[in-house]
Amino acid sequence: MPQWSDRSTGERLQLLRGPGITQEQLAEMTGLSVATIRAAEQGRRLTLPTLMKLSAALGADISVIEGQQAPRRQMAQADRSVVRALSAAVHDTAAGILPSDADAPQLHELEAATDRCWNLYWKGRYTEAGALVTPFLASAAARVREQPVGEQDAAWGVLADAYRLAAYVANLVGARDLAYSAIGHAQAAASNAADGMRAALVNSGRAWVYLRDARTDDALRLAEQSATDIEPRFSTATPEQLTAYGSHVNFAAVVASRMGNKDRVADYLSQSHAVGARMGREVRAHGTLFGPTTATTQAVGINVSLGQTGKALTLIDSIKDVSGLAEAAQHRYQMDKAMAQADAKMWDASLDTLENALRAAPEWARHQTMPSVIAEKVGRASTARLRRVSKLIGVRAPIDGGFASATEKSAL
Known about the structure:
Layout: H1 9-17, H2 23-30, H3 34-41, H4 48-58, H5 62-65, H6 77-94, H7 107-122, H8 126-146, H9 153-172, H10 176-193, H11 196-212, H12 216-229, H13 239-258, H14 262-279, E1 283-285, E2 288-290, H15 292-305, H16 309-318, H17 327-343, H18 347-360, H19 362-365, H20 370-378, H21 383-393, E3 395-399, E4 402-405
Antiparallel strand pairs: 1-2, 3-4
Helix pairs in contact: 2-3, 6-8, 6-10, 7-8, 7-9, 8-9, 9-10, 9-11, 10-11, 11-12, 11-13, 12-13, 13-14, 13-15, 14-15, 15-16, 15-17, 16-17, 17-18, 17-20, 18-20, 18-21, 20-21
GO molecular function: DNA binding
Protein name: XRE family transcriptional regulator
Domain HTH cro/C1-type: 20-65
């Protein structure tokens, strides 16, 4: 496959435009003529004003169009636009630069907005969540500014939530620098709020950024610290406190599994199941959801990571209903299930599980890498079904043991 820099500017423009936008639509988005768009994609030299208009419409830096750096993997035009707007909001808000028309809603209105953002996030609608967080950041910062001195703690807490949401969205779509920046601002806001729970939640979020950046030692240290900082007394803990603690312990188990530390994993999973059993049901709080089903479904993925396929399949057999989970958590469980089945060489069952998950959640799936890994693992076991799954993922079926992109999406 050619490198991004090896392609012509016209080819790069076609790939950035993608199949979801026609040349006519791009012309309307930029204010350029259709003839100009066609000429640009045929390789005609672009003026700076034209480049700037194309850059803004496609949500891609000029350096990407010019081939000086590659775009982020599998990021569609809508994703790129949202990330650019979110990045501007994070950096401007942190610098105290707010839009001239930024309003300062009351705290109860901002808390309701926080819930809406988290609901979108846990439905796997990350682009929508990112688009909503962008104005939310400015509103939360405006509320901090408007609050009387000495009465700003709650407003700082909401702003910490907004920054944490921005970090989560950025981390999921691969905008790692933005994720680091947003989680850093979340940490500062949580400190100003003097809220120990929020500080621990932010630390857990930073641990997740570390994990995705392959900083596993740092991720485990922070994950363990976060869980310790909010460990409640079981006899007096509220469901909300148990939700936060169970989620933190489970994440610590995830990080330990990536490091192959089976003893630590066993300890954390034991705590996780104990918390879930104590709760007796799934509870949503502090931007997360936890309970006995969450503890069990996440243990499936953890055992898959450790190569303990038999344990993973035993847990899968014990899970009868996942409807109480957030939609994104349900989809992730299906990916873990498909991976366990592939590891057990249950090829057709794995492809069935994977295909159903891809059809049920195409928006969520396009931000995930596991579907391609599972399909590659299955290989040529069931050619017709594999072709269908490969089409859903956006790759060609394997040739000589490897995958190749059907539409060059892997370059994006």
